[in-house]
Amino acid sequence: MSGLPERASNLIGGVLEPSSGDATAVTSPWTGEPIGSVGGGDAATVDRAVAAARAALPGWSSTPSTRRARVLTRLAGLIEANATELAATISLDNGKTLADARAELERAREHLEAAATAPALLAGEHVVDVVSGIDATLVREPIGVAAIVAPFNFPIMTGLIYWSWALACGNTVVIKPSEQAPYGGSALGRLFREAGFPDGVVNIVQGGRVTVEALCDHPDVASVSLVGSSATAAAVYARASAAGKRAQAAGGARNPLVALPDADPDVVATAVTTSAFGMSGQRCLSSSILVTVGDQPALLDAVVRTARESTVAPSPDAAGLPPMISQAAVDAVTGVLTRAGEDVLVDGRSALTPGKGYLIGPSVVRAAESSPLMTDEIFGPVLFVVAVPTLDAALAFVNASPFGNAASIYTTDGAAARTFTSRADVGNIGVNVGVAAPTAQVGFGGRRRSFLGTIHSQGRTAVDFFTDLKSVSARWVS
Fold this sequence. Notes:
Residues 21-472 form the Aldehyde dehydrogenase domain. By secondary structure, the chain is α/β, with parallel strands linked by helices.
């Protein structure tokens, strides 16, 4: 009925095959009904995938970088040509609206096109007569087999942010989609070969913790890149690093949006609610805490009004808040609202549909700076509102958070925006921007519990992560 294979697929050495290990049901967030299953994975399957990637490495790494870039560009074209089918798959097992799924695919194409510019960033350095008679050359080389562990919320785009640059730099990859959205995560499987990737250059292995740990432990895996919760990021970073691998692990977030009194309350209300409730808050760059400098009753009224006017999407082709990824995710949000008690100003629990999918409406909660809910990882459509007396106090609040992914400020005061940009201790800043997402060409990464590692993703930083430097000193004696 769904048009999907009975079990989500692996891609190993160019061959699609059912995922291995004990199967668990995959349910559609729209209905709560099973749409297929996914295997839990096993070390033997990981070993086969890594072996395929390792075997393909010499040929791919020696392929001229401009030819590798052309393959990435062809894949971008195939994504565009197959956008209707890909968006439907994403929506079915991830729960996005079709509009959100199409937007994800558009961003994925942008990232592929950005990664196709890698040849310009792979240039080395050459110094003649660094000392008398000796020339020095610095070259970049691929690091080997790169493992990519992708999240459920952008099942195609987020993993692609990493593996596109890894491939552009001459590495081969093993991609582990989220077990919560395995069909969306592997939807490109059949397009890799059509784009021109040789067998084994791109591999996909489904599964959960067993698969991730096998990738972290495998001696032929050179690096691990992950996006997930802070707890998962910490565990994977520690395990991969202990095995001597390069690792970058993006964790959770609680992103504040600071509103100064000079900002238009209706503009801020639209920006913060769009950010907080878009994709039902299941984005790592969602603004989930509104920090007002001073009491701003007009802004609070506008936020409450906008939240109450927001609706849930009854179907994938409708507008509104989509369902959450699982019943467990819904239960986590309802638990937060129960703990918030009388501070709940707008209660999304009124939209719950028990037994009919994982829909929940937008919620607004008024909280104190010291509330323990400020440090919880809440991945859902809940906006907290906190009032502080000054911009300095707002910056102190931002910087005291255990998370450091993103922060935004809304103001017409250039000096205040400059102060915020300079002093906010986060990885991504937005100025009059509700979702501080950098473009595909610009480095992206958080701080503290939001990121573990020393090198971020995208652009030049991705080239730094996925290449090693080699220094060559040469003297030619006649």
